[in-house]
Amino acid sequence: MIIENHPRLLSSLLLLLFWMLRSFALSTATDNEDHYSSSSSIFLSRINYDDLTANKTVFIKWAAPWCGHSQELAPVWDRLVAAVIAEKADDIENSENSFLIAEVDCSQEQQWCIEMGYTAYPTLTYGDGSVGGIFLQKYTSVNKEFEDLYQFYKDKLLDKSFCTPGNLAACGDAEFQDRIQQYSKLSITKLEGLVAEEEGRINEAEKEFERRNTELQENYDKVSNEHEYEVAKIKHHMKLFSNLLEETHKETSSHA
């Protein structure tokens, strides 16, 4: 073939193909990032979460723009958001905005996502958004096409057949149900006392961490100093032995 007989032509064609593929990959990545940020979904943060989710049924996507799986779900989620918004706009009789579809950018809210336990992206949660999200449940189905998510929204979320303070039977965990029932009977003063008690435990845990961290640092410094001393002592002995060996070689050479 002509190309086989012209290696420089073959190299040029391969180089051209490389740059074409590279340009395509870069444009695709840019399109994915642009699309990810083009969603009309409301973005939640630790600061605005309570205000935006109070007394609402929520459907939340916890994701990160750098995650390939998050990028794959982005257009599906955008379509779902648009469908829900359009449906709510058409529902003239129901002026009460009791449903919220939103998302969290875990690249911006990393610590909060970790504290909430959402570190595999994307994670979808749903349920009663109140009380800091303790009633949220994970969407565990592997089916995440638009039709699947929209049907889930229609069948499950609009009917509110999920775990809420008023529907503890749907919470599944009997121990959790009992604990919520017990807490619900407490007075505001008692609940405030429990919150203060838990905050105190957090502060104590932080102090203990600092104490142990300081202790580890002190032990490290001690071991490091001992190590440096031992190495210096060995080097001193090595230098002495090397000098003696050198003198011995000189004497041997002079007698030869």
Describe this protein's structure.
One of its GO terms (cellular component) is endoplasmic reticulum. One of its GO terms (molecular function) is protein disulfide isomerase activity. The protein has two domains: 42-162, 3-Layer(aba) Sandwich (Glutaredoxin); 186-255. A five-stranded mixed β-sheet has the order 1-3-2-4-5, covered by helices on one side. It has seven helices and five strands, in the order αβαβαβαββααα. The N and C termini lie far apart (74 Å). A hairpin with an 8-residue loop joins strand 4 (123-128) and strand 5 (137-138). Helix 1 (7-36) runs parallel beside helix 3 (68-90). The model is unreliable at 13-38 (pLDDT under 50). The chain has helices at 7-36, 49-53, 68-90, 110-116, 146-157, 174-184, 188-255; strands at 42-43, 57-63, 99-105, 123-128, 137-138. It is an alpha/beta fold and 256 residues long.
